[in-house]
TrEMBL record:
Spans through the membrane: 6-31, 43-66, 86-103, 115-136, 156-179, 200-221
Domain DUF6534: start-end pairs: 165-251
Presence of keyword Membrane: yes
Species whose genome carries this gene: Exidia glandulosa HHB12029
Keywords: Membrane, Transmembrane, Transmembrane helix
InterPro entries per UniProt: DUF6534
Protein origin, superkingdom: Eukaryota
Residue span of region Disordered: 290-318
Record's protein name: DUF6534 domain-containing protein
PANTHER family: CHROMOSOME 1, WHOLE GENOME SHOTGUN SEQUENCE, DUF6534 DOMAIN-CONTAINING PROTEIN
One Pfam assignment: DUF6534
Amino acid sequence: MAWTALGSVTVGILLNFWLYGVVCHMYATYWTSRSRDFLWMRLLVPALFIIDTVQTAADGYFLYVVTVQLNHPDGYTILRVWPCQLAAVTQSLSAVIVTLALTHRLYRLTKNNRFIGFGFAFLAVAVFCVGFTAAIKMWTFDFSKGLAGFNVAEDLILAWHSLEVALNFLISGALIYVLSRSRTGFKGTDSLINSLIRGAVQTGCFSSIFSLIVIITYTQMPVETSICLIFILPLGRVYSVTLMDTVISREMLKRDISEHSNSYATHGVSGAPTNTIELRVRKEVSVYDGDRMDTPDKSPISPKKAEADAASSLSNIA
């Protein structure tokens, strides 16, 4: 029995190799930057590295067996050595780690709002359970039926990826909304916030596009070709790239915040501010405070110092 999906699997594995190289470069950049992140964040990065390495090694072994070791293998033999169950497990682990890390960022941005923090964390764990259940279900895979044996987990696979898309869009949308409300009116700090908004858009789009393509190709393409495997196999590395890009961008943001916060103390501001400038600063600070209804300070406020304070307040997201 010939297996026409071998080409799709090969392309998917090669794409996975490429993304693994990209994310390894990101891991090296993070480890050499001597980050002062929380301990749990510093542990998440090596955990993702181990997950990515195990899955990539398993894919590499499978590709070696079917292309070098075996001589014209049939579909049954190929499926016997294919680590498809492991792929579902590692993808579920990578997705829940990345989603929880982004949930923590949203939790900090919303001033430690427990409803938002625990709510999104619960959704992330629930989606992980669906994906892990799909992986367990795949252990009952009947290799004699070829790829059609995947029907035992078809509903779970579709539900898993559909929930991933919905959760990614929810988290990204919430991040964009909160960041948009955090604009200060100062050019320097607003440019930093705009960078964070672009990162939130990329975070949701990158992984969601892959999951959407998986759903479309899985339901619309012939099972014999399994085009969906091109996008399923590297999906775990997509999540890793998403998190590492966010973490590295945050380190750059911290340096920018430090520069803005220190600019006032370093250079100072000479001369007394005029009434026009004073009114302008009060307006900008009130925009930054959002829902706060505190009475503004009657004393003159230096625009440079106000911008430095606003930049310093952005460190809450780190």
